[in-house]
Amino acid sequence: MEFSTYLESILLSKEHLVIAGDCNIHVDVPHDPDSLKLLDLLQSVGLQQHITEPTQIQGHTLDLVITRSSDDILNKVPVVDRFISDHASRRTTSVSDLNIFNSYRNRVTYLMNQARQAFYTNFIDENSTDHKRLFRATLNNNTLALSC
Questions:
Q1: CA 98 to chain CA centroid, nearest Å
Q2: Which regions span the lipid bilayer (predicted)?
Q3: Most buried by CB count within 10 Å: which residue of 46, 49, 92, 108?
Q4: Which stretch of 42-56, 65-79, 95-109, 117-131 has the lowest confidence by average pLDDT?
Q5: Distance of CA 51 to the CA centre of its chain
Q6: Comparing C-alpha atoms, which of 79, 97, 98 is closest to residue 88?
Q7: What's the CA gap between 42 and 46, in Å, rounded?
Q8: Cβ(133)–Cβ(127) below 8 Å
């Protein structure tokens, strides 16, 4: 799907909008054709790109945070925190960012616990007659799926 088509579909929502990620376009290079095309597209549909510092070790801005120009979501420009790989992490002080992160983290934790419970329940059911294998599994639960 073309990015412009994607934008058209999500811009119809009345919810606050945050698009974040690695766009692989050097938006810091003023005469780069891809950069110009992206920034013109964002401006034409009322969106704003907030990252103003390099997010890559080579000094380019590839990782973007985009919101509606009319939304007042970010109280400060996100800052580059540290370089973890060839890109930098972004840090924001937005309460809504923290709430969204906590919501996703809680959901992932819940799903992981459900999957873990199902795995152990199935493992015990399948091996209920093999006490030796169950005992070995308790010694090193990292090898449950691999032990024979």
A1: 13
A2: none
A3: 92
A4: 95-109
A5: 16
A6: 79
A7: 6
A8: yes
